[in-house]
Amino acid sequence: MSTVGNQRVSYAEAARRHFADAALLLSNSREANAGQLFGLAAECGLKAIVVACGANTDADGSVDKLAGVKGKPFRDHMPQLHQAAIAYGCHLPDGRFSTRYLASMPSLSVFSDWAVEHRYWRDTAWPAASLPKWTTAADEVMLALDQAQKDGVL
Fold first, then answer.
1. SS3 37
2. What's the total number of domains in the chain?
3. Which of 10, 16, 50, 60 has the fewest CB atoms within 10 Å, i.e. the most exposed one?
4. Nearest to 87 by CA among 24, 8, 76, 33
């Protein structure tokens, strides 16, 4: 996604950065923070797709607080963001692409037990058994971003 004017936000760049850092942390046995970043990578990647398919943004490039149908926000964290994208993605200006990209990320529902609040949790409290599923789902999001870039949408 290109930077326009004074926009500071690039969901696609953030997604790729979080994914790369998550992989690095995982390879160094830092599973809790890797899991947190895989969730953030998926979240940012999904927001990049939503914006690329026509969701309104504010002057900074962030998803507009009222983007979506009848004010349903795409600004939530996972798993609420995924639920909003499923429910309202077909109402985006480019519903054909949004439906296609969402279909290419079938594992996003595995983030149902992921929470941005895990960053505060004890090392033994976060759902460690979900890490392999989160990793796979985040990888699907990166592949969807690659496809969106090839399609000229990002």
1. helix
2. 1
3. 60
4. 76
